[in-house]
Amino acid sequence: MAVIVLSGDNRAVSRPLADALADLRPLLLDPDRLVRAVAAGHRRAATPTVARVELRPVDLKRGRMLQLVTYDGRQATTRNVPYPEAGAVVDALLAEPFGNWHLDLVDETVQLRVTKKAAALVHRTATSRRDVETRSHDRAKRHLLDPADPLFTALGADADKRRQVDAFLRLLAPSVARVPDVELLGRPLRVVDLGCGNAYLTFAAHRYLSEQVGDVRTVGVDVRPDMVERNRRLAEQLGLKGLSFETGTIAESAPLAGEGPPDVVLALHACDTATDEALARAVRWKSPVVLAAPCCHHDLQRQIVEGPGAPEPYAALARHGILRERFADVLTDTLRALLLRMLGYKVDVVEFVDSRHTPRNAMVRAVRTGTAARREVGVEYRALTADWHVHPALARMLDEEVARALAR
């Protein structure tokens, strides 16, 4: 088999195809030079075992790995291989009858196409490091999950959903870094999504954390059996190992039963006091990381309407329905943040995603410190609840814990 090599000035050099593929091997195994490689297509009368494979170096907690994402036409499977073991994997891929190889390197682009006559056309183009980083790494910097990932197609996620996924992952990533190294504990990272709904963020979190951490066990919980079954089918279709779904309420479900409390608790757009139920469970589990994106807030708004009224001079804040609703949203999340701080968490409330894409764009992010908050936090909490004559749902659910915190 001959290979035609096209140099920068289009001069052809004939070489055996086996030699040309052998030349790709050290490039694929060079983590300092390889940016991204893709093998796809098939040769005449020969079909690879997978439709497409992408390779790229990734830096994980376990060190630098060669990441392979293989597509079989229905689902994608991600595998991170330590470089000492990557040679055998690359050899197996080079032995597959792919019709095309495309390699982005820091200093050149290499394209190999096998023709119908079993020859190959190889084109090498010199590329500056800046050019390659702009072309190949820019998307990785802007998106923590590739927008072309089959996961988005399977979930029916449009551009707005993909933006929400990326914004969510950028909040999740630094928080999970605070979890103790699970490899030292000899178990998977444990993640629970309470009230997961259609679970597009659950899927995205599991995919991302599996790539970054390695061994991840994720359970999505929802009260609707039809939604749980749909999510189970999608997880199987996408080949997402370690991801499962259970039917149950937030308050009474038993995710990860027998495996231990979750390291990460998610509650994304759970309605009204369902968010409080998720926060209460996370506190009692002493979960290190909690991310909650609240949805509607009716509990405090109802208490303000039915109570003695707004304190002076703030009556105007509750006079008009739309303003009262917005203020109740702010007051609810303020009190949630204070309660979590009193109960041993460092808390910030941040914009989840631009309000152009969703009006429910606040995220309560809490990382457990285990240390008691300053006394002033309890003073602020007492003053706010007394002035507005409210008793937050989260405080009702954690009555004993809150009482102890206030007594300090």
Which parts are unreliable, with pLDDT below 50 for 5 consecutive residues or more?
A: 1-12, 129-141
Q: What's the helical proportion of residues?
A: 40-55%
Q: What is the CATH C-level name of the largest domain? A: Alpha Beta
Main beta sheet strand tally, sense and closure: 9 strands, mixed
CATH architecture label of the largest domain? 3-Layer(aba) Sandwich
Integer average pLDDT: 85
Q: What count of domains describes the coordinates?
A: 2
CATH topology of the largest domain: Rossmann fold
What share of the residues does DSSP label as strand, in percent?
A: 25-35%
Alpha-carbon distance between the two ends: 81 Å
Overall radius of gyration: 26 Å
What overall form do the CA principal axes indicate? elongated
The CATH fourth-level homologous superfamily of the largest domain: Vaccinia Virus protein VP39
Topology pattern, helix = H, strand = E: EEHEEEEHEEEHHHHEHEHEEHEHHEEHHH
Strand order of the largest sheet: 2-1-9-8-7-3-4-5-6
| Count, helices | 14
Structural class based on helices, strands and sheet pairing: alpha/beta
Could you outline the blueprint of secondary structure elements for this entry?
Blueprint: E1 2-6, E2 12-16, H1 17-28, E3 34-40, E4 52-60, E5 63-71, E6 76-82, H2 83-95, E7 100-105, E8 108-114, E9 120-126, H3 129-142, H4 150-155, H5 159-176, H6 182-185, E10 189-194, H7 200-212, E11 216-222, H8 225-238, E12 243-247, E13 264-268, H9 273-285, E14 289-293, H10 299-306, H11 321-342, E15 345-351, E16 362-368, H12 375-388, H13 393-397, H14 399-407
Parallel strand pairs: 1-9, 10-11, 10-13, 11-12, 13-14
Antiparallel strand pairs: 1-2, 3-4, 3-7, 4-5, 5-6, 7-8, 8-9, 14-16, 15-16
Helix pairs in contact: 1-2, 5-7, 10-11, 11-12
